[in-house]
């Protein structure tokens, strides 16, 4: 099949760079001896620049068992010489086997000659598989000013890559000849579809069979090299060949790959979105899609400390004040997936694991674009009850900070509160000020009969397109899906090409959400943790609304299953385990959401179906969120972080039996040590740098139910679970209900954590002990009520729930504003308190707004520049 057919697909054209490059495949072999890696060989391959059908193979062998290491520059220049890369059209004519003469670029100014030499470079794309192992074999710091390549790298999508090329320049002994390289790094771990990242799979995809070494030699490669050199060389070079051939199969011969597949998918979304929105450049696309402009356009809508990291890190700003306010609100309303275990226990009855088909692409296709340039806020809702008219459809672009109460008969309330690092769905928001929520879940809440009071909310101004709503994400996702279907026809179902586009479809949501909830990663160049920054398509509005749609879909389904007499045992991100059949679930109208989702599926795929069966089983041990197992072949097997012993085949009978036995026989935390390799931070830090060597981590893991919902104690029964050895063990089995208040949930979870220090919650007796502590234990005490009030006031202002004029006065420094707060006699606020108060999870720690009076009323009515008097400092 022609390798260019794949590259001709519109999405693939947009995903790829299209730039020519000299791709050099790279791999190493090493042996670990007494905690030290001995590098046995460096293998590098590249297509011949004159005859690309030929591969030039270079193997560099350090002295046997010596521990000697090469510099990156030395290894790459060996390839330049062996392959005569100066014949490449990408290399300047002045370059030869010794590099370039001093006179071709020299200047007395160091920076000028460095820049001039950079133009006389050999541009190389160094490609490897699992760079954490391979790229850490080079010598760093061995000579004066020797390049430390590791600090130029970034960890992305499971691999090590460069975001921009870096220079490597070196002169010979007398400085008459100089060698200049420009190096980009790519890792096939970041270029492979999910679940297909092994080198053997990549080799099979591109027609190069991965070789194996005889049993017992893989940990003794130094000996293998000594005793079987020919086989050693053939084995080693083969892995580097796979890397080059795999990338050529995806992107074409001699083409620079995108940094990652997901980054390529984002580029495809920009390309299709630009066409759809009529944008002539990426910057114009950002303006139309997410309301962002470059910093130098002079828009100063947001105070420095309040800028969201996803755009600030990339040197951008909101288009105007409305864009800033709306983006900030949706960022606060951005929450993760719905994960819960409504029915812990043992169920020896038929159940099925049902998934929402392509849940996130389906939801993305329902998100309507906003008219950022016309002023993105259509209406502001303040201090009133919401009605169905406010959120007339699930796709209404609304976001609000709300308090709520659900009817007692609603099995699964649908407004989340972020607390204790997770999402909790209590029946009421009593005890906290409220929570930020998006349109889809608000729409569902109102149809479930909830009373919802909106403290502050914003209705987005919709952008029109051809007489209807503008749906740029639908257009972009459909293009990827269409191209995936085309790849399936051309290359076959399950082919590398089809799976690559499948990964593209599934990864674009993550790119819209990149750094919306602030994400930090290791910046090796700066040697510090820093925000990752947004992607080309990051948008709090699109990301938050998408996740809200998916959670609303699941919560609507769960409620209707219960209403119709069924049961939901577990829910995880985009699917759930139930005793309903797929057909029965498909017959639910989801309070009207079914029609909306079916329309989206039809628009994307031509098929209105929104559900598919994933697993089916006749037995279910359901122990906690993301933790359930069946002994039925093909049944569920989710480990809740418990790592299986090395060599255990995932989902095999052995895997299932080991997990079930560990959970059902436990008397406390389950011992679960494992082997780990150093993180990218540990590999690239300049002080106390680690080599790529394994270490043992000893830990134990709690398999107890996580109490996101309240156990219904009268429903609890001691079910006996049969074990593979024929014995039985007790497992408490029970239903749950929503907590009345999030405070109740947090106290219950803390009691369970305390009990897990010495035991576990598995049997009915253990759960009764927990319930006794919960029912008769102490509630929350506010030791310093004034401090709680003061911090809640700061949170209310920083969360956008209330506006205090003095705190919003940008002519004042932050220190001056904090001093003003201290004048109220409630205590003091540090700069750290101020910065952290805007974090989304702090909303669950905010006292109810009416609890903050009379101080909040006085503060909001006081003009900037005025100061509180003794009359204002009322006793709280």
Give the key terms.
about 900 residues; alpha+beta; seven-stranded mixed beta sheet; five-stranded antiparallel beta sheet; globular
Low-confidence parts: 779-783
Give the overall form: globular
Strand content bin: 15-25%
Rounded mean pLDDT score: 91
Fraction of helical residues:
25-40%
InterPro entries: DNA/RNA_pol_sf
Organism: Glutamicibacter bergerei
Protein name: DNA-directed DNA polymerase
Protein architecture, described:
The longest helix is centred in the middle third of the chain and has 24 residues, at 540-563. The protein has 28 helices and 38 strands. The protein is globular. The model is unreliable at 779-783 (pLDDT under 50). It is α+β, with helices and mostly antiparallel strands and 876 residues long. Helix 6 (199-206) packs across helix 8, helix 9 crosses helix 10 (282-290) and helix 9 (261-277) packs across helix 15. It starts with a helix and ends in a 15-residue tail after the last helix. The protein is 34% helix and 21% strand. Strands 1, 2, 3, 4, 5, 8 and 9 form a 7-stranded mixed β-sheet that branches. The protein has a 5-stranded antiparallel β-sheet with strand order 12-25-26-14-27. The protein has a 4-stranded antiparallel β-sheet with strand order 13-28-29-30, covered by helices on one side. InterPro entries: DNA/RNA_pol_sf. This is DNA-directed DNA polymerase. It comes from Glutamicibacter bergerei.
């Amino acid at each position: 099949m022609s390798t260019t057919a794949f590259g001709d697909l519109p999405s693939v054209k947009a995903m790829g760079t299209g730039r020519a490059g000299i791709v050099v495949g790279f791999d190493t072999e090493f042996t670990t001896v007494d905690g030290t890696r001995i590098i046995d060989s460096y293998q590098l391959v590249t297509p011949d620049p004159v005859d690309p059908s030929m591969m030039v193979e270079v193997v560099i062998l350090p002295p046997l068992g010596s521990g000697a290491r090469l510099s990156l520059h030395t290894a790459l220049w060996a390839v330049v010489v062996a392959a005569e890369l100066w014949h490449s059209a990408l290399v300047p004519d002045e370059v030869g086997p010794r590099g370039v003469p001093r006179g071709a670029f020299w200047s007395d100014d160091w920076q000028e000659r460095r820049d001039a030499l950079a133009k006389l470079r050999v541009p190389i794309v160094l490609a490897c598989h699992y760079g954490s192992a391979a790229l850490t074999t080079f010598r760093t710091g061995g000579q004066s000013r020797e390049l430390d390549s590791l600090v130029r790298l970034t960890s992305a999508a499971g691999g090590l890559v460069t975001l921009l090329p870096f220079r490597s320049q070196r002169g010979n002994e007398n400085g008459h000849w100089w060698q200049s390289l420009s190096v980009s790094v790519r890792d096939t771990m970041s270029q492979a579809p999910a679940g297909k990242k092994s080198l053997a799979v990549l080799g099979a995809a591109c027609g190069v069979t991965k070789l194996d070494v005889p049993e017992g030699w893989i940990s003794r490669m130094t000996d293998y090299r000594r005793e079987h050199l020919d086989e050693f060389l053939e084995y080693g070079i083969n892995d580097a060949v796979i890397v080059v051939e795999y990338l050529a199969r995806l992107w074409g011969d001699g083409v620079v790959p995108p940094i990652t597949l997901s980054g390529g998918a984002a580029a495809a979304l920009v390309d299709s979105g630009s066409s759809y929105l009529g944008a002539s450049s990426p910057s114009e696309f950002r303006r139309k899609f997410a309301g962002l402009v470059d910093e130098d356009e002079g828009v100063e809508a947001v105070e420095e400390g309040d800028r969201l990291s996803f755009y600030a890190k990339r040197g951008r700003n909101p288009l105007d004040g409305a864009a800033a306010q709306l983006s900030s609100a949706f960022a606060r309303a951005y929450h993760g997936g719905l994960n819960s275990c409504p029915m812990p226990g043992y169920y020896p009855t038929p159940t099925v694991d049902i998934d929402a088909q392509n849940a996130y692409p389906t939801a993305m296709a329902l998100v309507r674009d906003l008219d950022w340039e016309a002023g993105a806020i259509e209406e502001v809702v303040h201090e009133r009850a919401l009605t169905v008219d406010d959120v007339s459809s699930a796709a209404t672009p609304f976001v609000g900070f709300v308090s709520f109460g659900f009817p007692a008969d609603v099995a699964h309330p649908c407004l989340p509160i972020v607390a204790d690092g997770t999402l909790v769905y209590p029946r009421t928001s009593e005890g906290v000020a409220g929570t930020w929520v998006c349109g889809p879940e608000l729409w569902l809440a109102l149809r479930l009969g909830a009373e919802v009071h909106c403290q502050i909310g914003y209705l987005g101004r919709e952008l029109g397109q051809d007489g209807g709503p503008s749906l740029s994400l639908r257009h972009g996702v459909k293009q990827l899906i269409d191209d995936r279907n085309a790849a399936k026809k051309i290359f076959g179902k399950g082919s590398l090409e089809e799976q690559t586009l499948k990964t593209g479809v599934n990864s674009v949501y993550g790119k819209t959400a990149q750094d919306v909830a602030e994400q930090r990663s290791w910046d090796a160049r700066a040697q510090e943790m820093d925000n990752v920054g947004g992607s080309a398509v990051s948008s709090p509005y699109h990301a938050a609304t998408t996740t809200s749609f998916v959670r609303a879909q699941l919560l609507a389904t769960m409620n209707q299953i219960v209403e119709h007499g069924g049961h939901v045992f577990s829910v995880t991100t985009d699917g759930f385990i139930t005793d309903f059949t797929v057909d029965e679930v498909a017959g639910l109208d989801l309070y009207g959401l079914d029609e909306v989702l079916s329309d989206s599926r039809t628009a994307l795929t031509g098929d209105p179906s929104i559900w598919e069966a994933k697993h089916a089983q006749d037995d279910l041990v359901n122990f906690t969120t993301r933790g359930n197992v069946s002994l039925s072949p093909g049944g569920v097997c989710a480990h809740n972080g418990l790592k299986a012993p090395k060599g255990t085949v995932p989902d095999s009978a052995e895997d299932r039996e080991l997990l079930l036995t560990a959970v059902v026989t436990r008397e406390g935390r389950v011992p679960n040590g494992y082997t780990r390799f150093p993180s990218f931070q540990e590999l690239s830090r300049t002080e106390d740098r680690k080599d790529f060597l394994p270490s043992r981590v000893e830990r134990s893991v709690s398999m107890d139910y996580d109490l996101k919902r309240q156990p219904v104690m009268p429903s609890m029964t001691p079910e006996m679970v049969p074990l593979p050895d024929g014995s039985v063990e007790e497992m408490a089995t029970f239903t749950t209900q929503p907590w009345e208040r999030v405070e109740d949930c947090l106290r219950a979870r803390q009691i369970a954590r305390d009990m897990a220090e010495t035991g576990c919650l598995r049997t009915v007796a253990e759960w009764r002990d927990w319930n006794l502590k919960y029912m008769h234990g102490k509630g929350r005490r506010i030791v310093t009520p004034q401090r709680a009030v003061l911090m809640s006031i700061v949170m209310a202002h920083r969360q956008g729930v209330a506006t205090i004029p003095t705190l919003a006065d940008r002519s004042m420094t932050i220190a001056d504003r904090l001093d003003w707060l201290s004048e109220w006699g409630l205590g003091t606020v540090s700069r750290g308190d101020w910065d952290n108060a805007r974090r989304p999870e702090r909303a669950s720690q905010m006292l109810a707004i009416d609890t903050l009076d009379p101080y909040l009323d006085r503060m909001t009515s006081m003009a900037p520049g005025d100061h509180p008097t003794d009359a204002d400092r009322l006793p709280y």
